[in-house]
Amino acid sequence: MNEKKFNVLKKNFFYIESYGCQMNISDNEIVISILLNNGFFLTENLKIANIILLNSCSIRSKVELAIKNRLQKLKYLKKEKPILFGILGCLSNSMKKNFLDNNLINFTIGPDSYKKIPSIIRLSMKGEKISHIFSSKKETYNNIKPFRKKNKITAFLSITRGCDNMCTFCIVPFTRGREISRDPYSIIKECKTLYKKGFKEVTLLGQNVDSYVWFGSDELKKRIYKKIYTENKKIIDFSKLLDLLAIEIPFMRIRFSTSNPHDMSNKVIEVISKHSNICKHIHLPVQSGSDKILKLMNRKYTRKQYLSLIQKIKSIIPECSISHDIMTGFCNEDEKDHQETISLMNEVKYNYGYMFSYSPRPGTYSYNKLKDNVPEFIKKKRLQEIIDLQRNHSIFQMKKYIGKIQEVLIEGESKKNNQYWYGKNTQNIVIVFPKKTYKIGETVFIKIMDYTSATLMGIGIEKK
Ligand code: SF4
After folding, report:
1. Which residue has the higher pLDDT, 294 or 77?
2. Lower CB density within 10 Å: C or N end of the chain?
3. Rounded to the nearest whole angstrom, what is the distance from the C-alpha of residue 21 to the centroid of ligand 1?
4. CATH fold label, 154-398
5. How far is the CA of 229 from the centre of ligand 1 (A)?
């Protein structure tokens, strides 16, 4: 890029892409809002954009590679016009070094520095190379109204940022910093605004939602939170927050993600069962079925404790679906450990899950202190085994829906057939069905006729 040619005063259009988790998608909405309020214009057209932002995730090496490939592909734009490239989100130092120091990009901005993005872009336009990555104990973006696309009916809302858990394989505590919970009053207010705008479902996000906690100051408690605080319940934990939200937005569906098994309390399970508008689905990453590996990962629960939590969920909310994250091939994982993961999966029979093999991330404990000693071909083989097993379990779970009637919130047109809608039931299972005269945002009753491992198919019926 010829920085001298960059006209800082002309209209600046930014284009943004997101990689990684739901948290990044939610952060995109914050970044867009900040830029729109500071004289920048959003575009979905790369030809128009003169600022390209890639919101990254460094939890897995795959994403780093995907971003590298994307930057290579977009390189041609530099020949056509003055253009800036910036990487946002969870950035490892290696990413910063690889991309910024090698002139592939102009700036990097960490998740706690988004309010600085307009000034960083302006400085980059003058030719400065900038990296602004620091973690804050205060930043929650409470006062930013996230940008949300029109005609959407589901929204993400962050309730915590960062994580204190220090799993040995994870970069999040270093890139997103210590855990901070967001003020409950602003969460309730934003949910109510979403409902007024036509949203029908909200997903509460956090790296570890179950450790949400809000103390507030005495003065604030008296003046603002009278409704929230009661004499003997001065602290708002996640169960209380869910309870309050379910009452305050009774016609909105509430989901949440992600739960750490170590922090999920009985109270949370009871609150989920008590309210019909809290969805009956829990994403409960286990990572491994072996105590030896869980310990090496610093997951703070044992296989037995995890299984007893599953038991509790199933006994209090029998219809609850459960999904997982499993990592295969972690340091020192042997065949016995792998078989313990297989046996745990057989015991739980998850509805679905996200599976991947271990890749050491620079800056983490496992990268610095443990040996990545499982050969790649064994990692691949074990990963394939758990993927195949999960597919069987998903089919087993899906079969149970045949002939049943499901309440489905319509989210949009099916990608495979424009004569069909798709939506989800309370268990977060995707259901497709003929459009009839239904509209997006409606809740309809669907009789399930068929299934694949990932989708249910049905027809709309009148519920008497
Ligand atoms: S709970 Fe563990 S895996 Fe999840 S974000 Fe925190 S440190 Fe990372």
Report:
1. 294
2. C
3. 12
4. pyruvate-formate lyase- activating enzyme (3.80.30)
5. 30
